[in-house]
User: Which sequence fits this backbone?
């Protein structure tokens, strides 16, 4: 990643870590109770994501949306594509219109700042990295989690050194400022729903800083709609 982006991320993590001390994995019932609504609708969401997969060559790769992510997205010649429907509060209307089941749930979940269908190509490895700030939490929902030749779950998400293997319909809420990496050790595309969720229970100063940062990213997203086009 670019040195400026990396230094900014390091600075933000330092600031937040002095005020917020929570583990890598978080209790969804406490921190994101609406996550249960997405889990309950996972089959409908899977069907939408599979319909998008039919035009996957038109879905941008992660580093085409954020050039700063080339080190983890454009690292091995295998695709990591992102169909973005909401980006830090900015709605990508054309994309969301193709996903009415997800759109219906999002209407009642204002704490969800970003919503993306993520497509990880067979054999794709996303190297160890960290998110920049703790003002948001990451929610993973498995939609199409392929198995290897032995019939075992073959997509590994390491969070802070611990491996996690989600099956279809299973979810995880976690803090992406902890080191994490991904590997799709199968011959099929892995599809998950990724949500960025406003972190509740923040100290007032951290909530204010988070509001400012989210607003800045939203403004950037609004002036670069072509980056998300599918």
Assistant:
């Amino acid at each position: 990643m670019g040195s400026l982006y990396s230094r900014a991320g390091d600075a933000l993590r330092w600031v937040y870590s002095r005020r917020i001390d929570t583990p890598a994995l978080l209790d969804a019932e406490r921190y994101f109770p609406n996550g249960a609504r997405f889990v309950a609708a996972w089959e409908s969401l899977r069907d939408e994501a599979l319909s998008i997969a039919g035009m996957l060559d038109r879905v941008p790769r992660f580093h085409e949306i954020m050039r700063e992510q080339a080190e983890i997205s454009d690292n091995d010649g295998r695709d990591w594509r992102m169909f973005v429907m909401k980006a830090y509060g900015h709605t990508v209307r054309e994309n969301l219109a193709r996903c009415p089941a997800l759109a219906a749930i999002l209407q009642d979940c204002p704490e969800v700042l970003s919503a993306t269908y993520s497509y990880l190509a067979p054999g794709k490895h996303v190297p160890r990295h960290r998110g920049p700030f703790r003002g948001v939490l990451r929610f993973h929902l498995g939609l199409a989690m392929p198995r290897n030749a032995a019939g075992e779950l073959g997509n590994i998400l390491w969070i802070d050194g611990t491996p996690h293997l989600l099956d279809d319909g299973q979810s995880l809420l976690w803090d992406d400022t902890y080191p994490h990496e991904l590997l799709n050790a199968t011959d099929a595309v892995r599809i998950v729903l990724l949500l960025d969720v406003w972190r509740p229970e923040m100290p007032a100063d951290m909530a204010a800083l988070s509001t400012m940062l989210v607003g800045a990213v939203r403004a950037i997203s609004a002036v670069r709609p072509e980056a998300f086009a599918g």
In short: The beta strands are 80-87, 90-91, 112-120, 125-129, 136-144, 155-159, 162-164, 171-174, 180-184, 190-198.
